Amino acid sequence: MAAAVSSLMRSSSxxxxxxFVLALMISAAAAFADEPRSRxxxxxxxxxxxxxxxxxxxxxxxxxxxxxxxxxxHELLRDANPLVRDYSERALWAIWSHxxxxxxxxxxxxxxxxxxxxxxxxAIATFSEVIRRKPDFAEGWNKRATVYYxxxxxxxxxxxxxxxxxxxxxxxGALAGLGEVYVQLERYEEALGWFRKxxxxxxxxxxxxxxxxxIEQLLAEKGSKQI
Length: 227
Description:
Elements: H1 14-28, H2 39-45, H3 51-64, H4 70-76, H5 82-96, H6 102-116, H7 120-133, H8 138-150, H9 154-167, H10 172-184, H11 188-201, H12 206-226
């Protein structure tokens, strides 16, 4: 069961997100309408019937948006167009990664590199520095929760996820991440609850849907054996 679970507490840094956004804009430039020139224009374009205009607006918000824009992007996670839903999810990750302080962003990027290199102790220290310098920045907590998970320090990961959700209750990465942790602890009913909460926020996470079905089957099999 645990081997079937894939981690959802993502570790993308702001530079990586911006490269992704730039690639989107280059590949779709011919089809897209004019890029929005302001937050107001971007928000207005989100309501456009033209898919290209909505995608341009989402890309603009990914680059320039703030947490105040997140609720509108959450709405688009249920858009009829799958490309709009995908862009919106990625834009939310980008916005969550905006600390508002370039120096903090540099520290975050270093921590992500350390985490991706398997340098868990160094990454934990780096993200702890982010948390110390900017405790209200939810993504600092989320990244440290991810490293604790990778290092097998599950109770610490749970504690950090709780800090993420205090600051960003709609952080579907942290919600799904808690499910991941509880699977590792073989506390499957709790894992199922967190996975379901994640899907309530973002219904597009196929891996989480798979986890839900797998746990439901596991619990059903356990129940039948006890009868």
